[in-house]
Amino acid sequence: MTSAVRPRIVLSRCIEVDHCRWNSLRVASDVVKLLLPHVDIVPVCPEVEIGLGVPRPPIRVIKTDEGLRLYQPETARDCTVEMERFSDEFLGELGSVDGFILKSRSPSCGSKEVRVYQGLSDHTVSRKGVGFVAAAVAARYEGVAIEDEGRLTNWSLRHHFFTRIYAMARFRSQVLTAPSMQALIGYHAAHKLLIMACNERQLRMMGRIVANHDGQPLDVVVRDYEQHLALALQDAPRYTASINVLMHAMGYFDLTPAEKRFFLDALEDYRASRVPLSVPIAIVRSWIVRFGQPYLAEQAFFAPYPEELVQVTDSGKGRDI
């Protein structure tokens, strides 16, 4: 169900696209390289866009009495207003996106761990903060998946990021492109187990939105559902929630006692971190084929993104989710 969907991703242009870092280098990322053939990207380098050039003296986030400023110490150039203006214009024209991959620790793009200096000529780091453009992204695109290339080397973070961007891309493609209650109901049905694993409370609320007992207009229903979908997907599923979903799925099959024991042993191995989540999921997927179970066959939980994005080295990862 994921093969025909291409998430729209904003990507820092210095990551695997262009030699546009301050030192003229390009950032290598195996994850981004793997992802590029499967997504539509909007590459951007805010520092180049405001005319800083390549190569260029580095810029810094500086703490001042007037608040945070973006300075280029070597030239004493204050880039704050230019960067804020660029952020407003770029994001104002961007439209719908399914996620952001931004350069880690960048004073413009960094979403975490950005050094904030005490002053223009002071090399003391007062604290860690967020880059100017990343802060504008978080404010305008609340609930949208935002990661950096460094954090995506972690399997759990990468799996959750891929899951989020593909779930939102399917919603955009299947519901927002041609809104109808039928499309919304179909999307919700196919994502029930995925949402259940992430946030059961949100799942119940989304079920009420789809039921629409108050007779709300379609555009209101779709907008409310989209907001709650983003909220539901913000946190990765806990391992206990994934086990609950898999136990729920087991009830759809007419299994022998031996098969049930085998599956429950696999779940216990997953609970004890002896095997990854992919092991019990593979068992259920084999039963879906064997029993021809149409409802589970359409569930995004069992294939949240294309298998081409699953690396062999992921299969032995420990249980973080």
The helix tally amounts to 13
SS-based class: alpha/beta
> Got a strand count?
9
In one word, what is the shape? elongated
The tally of domains stands at 2
First and last CA, distance: 23 Å
Elements, N to C (H/E): EHEHEEEHEEEHEHHHHHHHHH
What is the percentage of strand-forming residues? 5-15%
The strand line-up of the biggest sheet is 5-4-3-7-8
The major beta sheet can be summarized as: 5 strands, mixed
Rg: 22 Å
- Helix percent reads 40-55%
* Rounded average pLDDT: 93
Taking pLDDT < 50 over at least 5 consecutive residues as the criterion, the unreliable ranges are none
Could you characterize the architecture of this molecule?
The protein is an alpha/beta fold and 321 residues long. Helices cover 45% and strands 12% of the residues. It contains 13 helices and 9 strands. Strand 3 and strand 4 form a beta hairpin. Helix 7 crosses helix 8. The longest helix is centred in the middle third of the chain and has 22 residues. The two termini are 23 Å apart.
Task: Give a quick summary of the entry.
The chain has 321 residues and is α/β, with parallel strands linked by helices.
Identify the notable features of this structure and list them briefly.
9 strands, 45% helix, 5-stranded mixed β-sheet, alpha/beta
